[in-house]
Design a protein that fits this description.
Helix Hairpins; 50% helix; 7 helices; Alpha-Beta Plaits; SH3 type barrels; alpha+beta; 10 strands; 5-stranded antiparallel β-sheet; 281 residues; single chain; 3-stranded antiparallel β-sheet
Length: 281
């Protein structure tokens, strides 16, 4: 017991100053870290950054400051820094490997919340999914599809793939193809389709609606109608355009080749006669 007390006294006399200094540095360091993070939080609160980004920045700064404080205390106590550095490096590597996917999603969410390639309410296509953005968290982005399914996409996947924002612009173009038999006057078809598109509710007069022959497939002409509308009205105008153009073609006696039936007349002696096409239901 006497030897133990002597050892304690020896350590206290030789290292007591270092221990007291380390404790003082730790106490002051904790106080300063709280003060610094509070100041940073107030400063970031005055910016336009997303609150989630602000919290992440505060957390990262706090962790880094605590690491610096820990290293300072260890150095004051006289512990060899090479061992500490090796320990920190190996620990960081292990954590990085274990949370590789999570860290990728964290970084992706951080960048999305800063650069804002899309926002809540936008309709996007990305990472094999599409839908309306309903929420952006630090790890996942939530989409709601047109048939009301919830899709969660990891932010890491979003940042590593192309993202198409279909509602970023004020107006959008609608493209529709119509098959027409090749025995119809092309100018008539273009006129009918152009007039139908221009008279469709919601179609803008500028840019002017477009109707032209764009492809030929055997005995079929394919005419394309292109019309512009305000983005929020896209789907209503999309379906109205199909209805109006189809109705206009029918009223002008312009057939769809799929509505025709080919009839071959064969004579009594087995020879082929004339071919004739008739409209059918």
């Amino acid at each position: 017991m006497e030897e133990f007390l002597n050892k304690v006294i020896e350590i206290g006399t030789t290292s007591g100053g270092k221990i007291l200094l380390a404790i003082a540095v730790a106490v002051v360091g904790f106080f300063l870290i709280k003060l610094i993070t509070k100041v940073i939080g107030r400063s970031l609160g005055k910016t336009k950054l997303d609150p989630q980004v602000t919290r992440v920045i505060e957390t990262v700064v706090k962790v880094l400051l605590y690491v610096v404080l820990l290293v300072a205390v260890i150095e004051i106590l006289g512990v060899p820094m090479t061992s500490v550095a090796a320990l920190i490096a190996s620990g960081g590597l292990a954590v990085g490997l274990a949370f590789q996917g999570a860290l990728g999603n964290l970084a992706g969410g951080f960048l999305i919340l800063i650069f804002r390639p899309f926002k809540n309410g936008d309709y996007i296509e990305a990472a094999g999914a599409e839908g309306v953005v309903k929420g952006i968290s630090i790890f996942y982005t939530k989409l709601t599809t047109l048939d009301n399914r919830a899709v969660l996409i990891p932010n890491g996947d979003l940042m590593s793939s192309n993202v198409t924002n279909l509602t970023a612009e004020k107006i959008r173009r609608i493209d529709q193809d119509f098959k027409i038999t090749n025995d119809i006057d092309q100018n008539l078809v273009k006129k009918v389709l152009a007039n139908a598109a221009a008279n469709t509710p919601g179609v803008l007069s500028e840019p002017v609606p477009f109707a032209r022959l764009t492809a030929v497939d055997d005995d079929t002409y394919i005419f394309t109608v292109r019309a512009w509308c305000n983005t929020p009205e896209y789907w209503d105008v999309y379906f109205d355009l199909i209805e109006c153009c189809s109705k206009a073609l029918s009223e002008n006696g312009i057939d769809d080749p799929e509505e025709r039936i080919a009839v071959r007349i064969v004579s009594d002696d087995g020879e082929n006669g004339e071919n004739r096409e008739e409209s059918g239901e």
